Amino acid sequence: MKKSLTGALAVLLASSVCAQASVQDLINGVKSKNLEAVQQLLAAGEDVNAQNEQGNTALHYAIATDNAEMTRLLLNSGANLNAANEKGWTPLKIAEKKNVQNVTAVLAEMQAANEKIAKSNEVNTIAAERQLIQRAAAEVERARDSEKTALAAQEEAETKALILESKLAMLEKTLAEKSKALEDAEKQNKEALKKVEDAQKQVKEAQKAIEAKTEAKPQAQPAKKVAPKVAPKPQPKKPAQPKKIAQPKPAPVKVRIPQPSTFHKGMTDGAEEVIYCLDLLGQGENKHMAQAGAYYAASNGVAEARYQQIVSYATDFYHNADDNALKQRVDACGKVITPNDAVEQNKIIRALNQSLNSRPNSLIAIE
Known about the structure:
Blueprint (H helix, E strand, L loop, with lengths): L1 H30 L3 H9 L14 H7 L3 H9 L14 H7 L3 H45 L5 H66 L43 H5 L6 H11 L5 H13 L4 H17 L2 H15 L4 H16 L10
Helix pairs in contact: 1-2, 1-3, 3-4, 3-5, 4-6, 6-7, 9-10, 9-11, 9-12
């Protein structure tokens, strides 16, 4: 007995899981805008109004994503616009609250078509009822006009006529009530569409207000840093020195100094720039930095001829640039070759300073 109950529960659970998976497949098809997959699932008998764990149907997601074609397909397949989820939201309420212009157009189109069908059905019903009345009247007339009809038959015919007239009165009353209900439904639909349009206008106005505030908001300017004024230290008076006869300065040697961009062309990750910097900083006593440039060139596939050209550029710059230009170039090189590791960074900075201090009349320091 226990085994049979367990088996039954397992079957129920499996069927529930399968049903939930089938519903999720339909919803996933709507979310991914796969119209063909949704058509196949509906053709296979999937319930268009099936709800997931949150109570949402496929129509909830089609309207929420403003998917007009998917909404039309689901409505034509019998989707319910008034199916509420766990929060009480219906697809129609979503259309009213969200800016879904494409879906609103579809709803208006389908509403007009439904109204046309309803009016056509009402007209057909009235025509059928009139035809029935005409037939009944014809039967009454035939019964009255027939001289061979017995009194009983005449009374029976008159009774039928009375019954038909009563039915006609009831049908006319029902028709009037249906016409009134149809008018009320049309009024409600117009009000609902008006609410949707008003909501869309409010959303657009809110977006415009947000954009206007964003454009009008001034950009904060960073506060300028003011360097503190330091009083100059008093300098000791130097003894008078005999005037030296000024010697004419030799004309500076004009050497073409390549800019950093020269070495970036055609290379990845600025390999030539790193080699240039290592060889520039190795022009003093720190020959290991020049060796590091050679090792870096070999590791990054820089040709020997190109490496020698880079070394020549660095040598010319080191021996011919003034101290200010050299300082700027060294600062730029420090940013290129300084690694993230603090130990290696300190080694390079110490070697850099030693190289600069070995140059005559150089007072450049980085630390």
